[in-house]
Amino acid sequence: MSDTASPEPAQVASIATPVNFVLLSLLILLTYLRLRPKVPATLPKGPPTVVFRTFTPPELKPLNGEEGRPVYMGVRGQVFDVTNGRNFYGPGGPYENFAGRDASRGLACGSFDEEMLTKDLEGPLDDLADLGSEEMDALRGWEERFLEKYLVVGRLVSIGQKKKEEDEAAKSNV
User: Can you give the pTM of this predicted structure?
Assistant: First the structure.
C-alpha cells in the first residue's frame, strides 16, 4: 500500500458567518433609512391676511403697536403696515409719534416732533400745500422706501370723505 494519503475533500465555505450577518443587517438598515417615507416638511405660518381697507385718522390712531396691536402709519394717503419695523415705529422707537398717525408732514420736514402731526383727527387731512419742493422730494423718498419695505394695507381719508364714499356706495347698491 502506499504511504500517500488521499486528498481531503474540499470544504465548502459557508456565507452564513457572523461578519456577513452584520454586513447584511447594516445594508438592510441603510436601505431602509434611505427609502423610508419622509415626514412632510411643515411650513411656518404666514402673517395673518390683511384686507385692503379705507382708514380715517381716528380708526388709524389705535394701530400704534401698543398692547400687541399692529403698527400702521399713513404717508400721502396710503396706510403702511410697519409692524416689521416695530423697533423704529412702535412704542419706545425713535419714530413712535408717527405710529397710528398720518406721518406725511413730519417725514417731509424731517421732524419727529408732536407738532408735526395733525391735532384734529375729525377734520380734513393735511393737504401739504405749504410744503416746498425739497420737502416734497424728501416725502417722495420716504414713500418709495416704505413701498419697497412695507405692505400697503389701505388708504387714509378724512371722516367726511369716508362718509361721502359710503353714501355713494349705498345709493349705487339701491
Answer: 0.70
